[in-house]
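Minutes, project check-in
Item: structure for the 168-residue chain
Input as provided by the requester:
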Amino acid sequence: MTGIKDSGERYEFKTGAVRDIQEGKGRCDLMPLDIIEGLSYLTPDCPFNEVLLDISYFIKSGDVSNLYNALNEFMNNVYGTGKKGFADAVLELSKHFEDGARKYGEGNWKKGIPVHCYIDSAVRHYLKYLRGDKDEPHDRAFMWNIICCIWTVKNKPEMNDMKGAKNK
């Protein structure tokens, strides 16, 4: 599995933070995730039914505890429960931070990226993980986007542009 994909195209936010251009990838942050999540019950072999619902609750309420719940559900299902599962997930996540620092520079994401960008990217990586795509580490990318979204809501509330925007 390769590191973070790179189109070579960048979008620079007013804060100076940069990200790979999203055009043509879809806008997962605009979908009614609670409805999409409801469809997942039609797929009984999907152990992640709560992840999209928790993200949709965050979008509606702005309460980051919902993002923690989504992340916990994902990590437990992908890496397992207990201290080994937790350690495995966090060590994988650290690789994504390392790849991102190499691609964009250390702390680029801390300059300020709108919350909708994190939600859009997180949901896309989540769905690509479920689909089994191997072109990049979608599990790590999902976790990275959720973690950075939570950090942004708590530390840069002015970047929270989701409907239920509030800092909890």
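Outcome recorded: The beta strands are 10-12, 18-20.
No further action items on this chain.
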